[in-house]
TrEMBL record:
This is DUF1318 domain-containing protein. It comes from the Bacteria. Keywords: Signal. It comes from Desulfosarcina widdelii. Residues 1-27 form the signal peptide. It holds the Pfam family DUF1318.
């Protein structure tokens, strides 16, 4: 086998390995991180510190900015999830986020802050 053929097979094996092993682990990592943050997010929503935006992300509702790192991490993972779903469905991450926001609003608890389509905050 010549050098080009050898390099081709090495690259193909590396790409296949990275695809087969990194994608499920990556998705599992996101799911685990989001699950571990959920109790704190529920608490922050119940206290009225954060709410759900109309594009499927968390935002601070008032002046109190408790747990900024947690909120930023959750939003970053949501962004990755929305991008993956968008790619799979042939749409944009923005559309996926907006659809998710509607689902979240339906399941929101009374008293939680939500953002309407125009960007105005309201309590459920």
């Amino acid at each position: 086998m010549n050098r080009k053929g050898y390099l081709f097979w090495i690259m193909a094996a590396l790409l296949a390995t990275s695809f087969l092993f990194s994608t499920p682990v990556f998705a599992g990592d996101i799911k685990a991180r989001m699950k571990s943050r959920l109790p704190k997010i529920v608490q922050l929503k119940a206290k009225g510190v954060i709410g759900e935006t109309n594009d499927g992300f968390l935002a601070f509702v008032g002046a109190q900015k408790a747990e900024q790192d947690l909120v930023a991490a959750e939003n970053e993972d949501r962004k990755k999830v929305y991008q993956a779903i968008a790619k799979q469905q042939g749409t944009s991450a923005k559309v996926v986020g907006q659809r998710r926001a509607l689902q979240i609003a339906e399941k929101a608890q009374p008293g939680e802050w939500l953002q309407d389509a125009g960007g105005k905050w309201y309590r459920k």
